[in-house]
From TrEMBL:
Keywords: Cell membrane, Membrane, Transmembrane, Transmembrane helix. The chain crosses the membrane at residues 6-31, 51-71, 77-95, 116-136, 148-171, 183-207. Pfam families: MarC. Its main location: membrane. It is found in: Cell membrane. This is UPF0056 membrane protein. Belongs to the UPF0056 (MarC) family. It is a multi-pass membrane protein. It comes from the Bacteria.
């Protein structure tokens, strides 16, 4: 019973930590903005692939993160800098008003097929939003010093968070209908500003670590 309590406490700690870092609710406006031109089938496809890719990224880094960093000469600071730049660009694009006519010229009037726009599922949805430097670092930290059972718990917990994120992505349109498009627009721009600030913070932290400031 004591062993079960320890595992349960560990799972709870991991869940709360990863949930706070991933923050799937904050990713809804980003998903809605990036898939606004897609039909329902394409949106579901992007939602599915984004969470699957994010899960695979976390699994790989949890199992062999230190080895990958060592082989390629990658530092966590460099990962923070790159992730910070990406997050800032995403936030900037969300804050900046977009002309729908320009979008339609680029994308055409036909519904987007499921395979189109898949790059959105990889970047920025899967990484750095769902599996960014924070989530990677946290999962590596929880997995590195523990046994295989704890590693399995970390993976299971992140899988639950991915499923929650998927449900929120799919329910995005219903959420918009409930709160209204104007409110959603305000939330999107607010989240864009927050993402831009987070990106700058990640970039500053990465630069500080790179140059040992």
């Amino acid at each position: 019973m004591s062993l079960f309590d320890n595992y349960f406490a560990f799972a709870t700690t991991v869940f709360m930590g990863l949930l706070a870092i991933v923050n799937p609710i904050s990713a809804i406006p980003v998903f809605m903005e990036l898939t606004s031109y897609m039909d329902k089938k394409a949106k579901r496809n992007i939602a599915t692939k984004s969470v699957l890719i994010a899960f695979c990224i976390i699994m790989v880094f949890s199992v062999a993160g230190k080895l990958i960093f060592h082989v390629f000469g990658i530092t966590l600071a460099a990962l923070r800098v790159t992730g910070g730049i990406l997050v800032f660009v995403i936030g900037y694009e969300m804050v900046r008003s977009k002309d729908e006519a320009v979008q339609s010229q680029k994308l055409g009037d036909q519904p987007v097929k499921a395979d189109q726009g898949i790059s959105v599922a990889i970047t920025p949805l899967a990484m750095p939003l769902l599996a960014g430097p924070g989530a990677i670092t946290t999962s590596m930290s929880y997995s590195a010093a523990k046994d295989l059972t704890h590693l399995a718990i970390v993976m299971a917990v992140y899988a639950v968070i991915c499923y929650i994120t998927y449900l929120l992505f799919i329910a995005g349109e219903r959420i918009v209908r409930v709160i209204g498009t104007n409110v959603m627009m305000v939330v999107t721009k607010m989240m864009g500003l927050i993402l831009a600030v987070i990106g700058v913070q990640m970039l500053a932290l990465g630069i500080k670590e790179l140059f040992n400031l």
